[in-house]
């Protein structure tokens, strides 16, 4: 029986830069390379290439470089490799500003889960400021526990961070489901902790590559939870 749903924060409940993953490549170019953003490029293909490279890199146990992701995204969008590399270096020389916004459907889903009597936790690799961020976004009222790696000292995929959330909610791991966007950290980490995972994959990159339920929109989770019990 499911008693609790855990969520990742960035790119799951929260849009860290104020835009979707599909818009992130063009957003970065609009800010720091407007001439490039004005070109008729295949931005959606670029975003998909970025996401696939990011997921594969994390599955290899490596840290995904934003510069490499940008280069691959720009190349897939139609920029020659040498030029794509130069633009990627130029863009990442300046820091992309954070602009936190709720992911579409996030607040509706949190309300729906609470009305169903489920506990909700956010389990995220963050910098210690996650509770404050959730309060600013007015999402905290539907969240029962927040587990921020910046405060706990352990990061996903370490199973201990999921067990912290279980202890806070006084549930067993098999009574929880975790939803997140990074297969290596969220799904495999939760699995080691004894928790079932649901991958949030808005671009549909991983749905044929993984062995877990996959949703492309947050409200789809409601239909997934019923068969999980």
Q: Quick one: overall form?
A: elongated
Order of helices and strands: EEHHHHHEHEHEHHEHEEH
From the N-terminal CA to the C-terminal CA, the straight-line distance is 5 Å
- Poorly predicted sequence stretches spanning 5 or more consecutive residues: none
Tell me the total number of β-strands.
8
SS strand fraction: 5-15%
Largest sheet: 6 strands, parallel
Name the average pLDDT: 96
What does this entry look like structurally?
With about 230 residues, this protein is of the alpha/beta class. The chain has helices at about 20-30, 35, 45-60, 65-75, 80-90, 105-115, 130-135, 150, 160-170, 185-190, 220-229; strands spanning about 5, 15, 100, 120-125, 145-150, 175-180, 195-200, 215. α7 (about 130-135) links the parallel β4 (about 120-125) and β5 (about 145-150). α1 (about 20-30) crosses α3 and α4 packs across α5 (about 80-90).
Produce the secondary structure layout.
Blueprint: E1 4-7, E2 14-15, H1 21-32, H2 34-37, H3 43-59, H4 66-77, H5 81-92, E3 101-102, H6 106-115, E4 119-124, H7 130-136, E5 145-148, H8 149-152, H9 159-169, E6 176-180, H10 183-192, E7 196-200, E8 214-215, H11 221-228
Parallel strand pairs: 1-4, 1-6, 4-5, 6-7, 7-8
Antiparallel strand pairs: 2-3
Helix pairs in contact: 1-3, 3-4, 4-5
What's this model, at a glance?
This protein is 47% helix and 13% strand.
